[in-house]
Amino acid sequence: MPPGTGDVQLSVSQNIPIAGAVIISTPQDVALLDARKGAEMFRKVHVPVLGLVQNMSVFQCPKCKHETHIFGADGVRDLAKTLGLDILGDIPLHINIRETCDSGQPVVISQPQSDAAKAYLKIAMEIVRRLPVPPT
Asked: Name one GO biological process term (predicted).
């Protein structure tokens, strides 16, 4: 869902059974405010927060490979510590992610061995590992 704790988020969390929530944020301060509100809202409505994902965590120059933390370095990690939650992983700011999504072939399909695809797959495995086992 989009960031925030408005009517849509509350309605969904109160009317649809949710096994868990994943909070995704860039590491910049203004985004972290919404991430914190979202985590707190899910806790209030008794939806387990499975963890946090740091999106656009680092940009690597395709020419020289220099890494830059455009949105800050560890904001989501710091928030996770404050809230007592786990970090599920980091998604880099990479042109291949945008290009493959725009072409209809997400990076996990079109470039499954790439570092970007591995980042998504690691997060997916962490989410599945934290989901409650459904009753039989």
From this structure: mitochondrial respiratory chain complex I assembly
What is the rounded distance in angstroms from the CA atom of residue 85 to the CA atom of residue 46? 15
Question: Residues with Cβ < 8 Å from 17, sequence gap 6 or more?
Answer: none
**Given phi > 0 = left and psi -120 to 50 = alpha, else beta, which region is 51?**
left
Look at residues 48, 123, 126, 35 and name the one whose alpha carbon lies nearest to residue 82.
35
Rounded Cα–Cα distance for residues 37 and 75 (Å): 15
Distance CA 69, CA 60 (A): 9
Q: Check: pTM over 0.85? Answer yes or no.
A: yes
Q: What is the pLDDT of residues 20-40, one digit of tens each?
A: 999 999 999 999 999 999 899
The whole-angstrom separation of Cα 64 and Cα 61 is 6
Alpha-carbon distance 70 to 68, whole Å?
A: 6
Decide: 47 and 13 in contact? Cβ < 8 Å.
yes
Per-position b or e across 90-109, b if 16+ CB within 10 A of its CB: bbbbbebbeebeeeeebbbe
Total count of residues recorded for the chain: 136
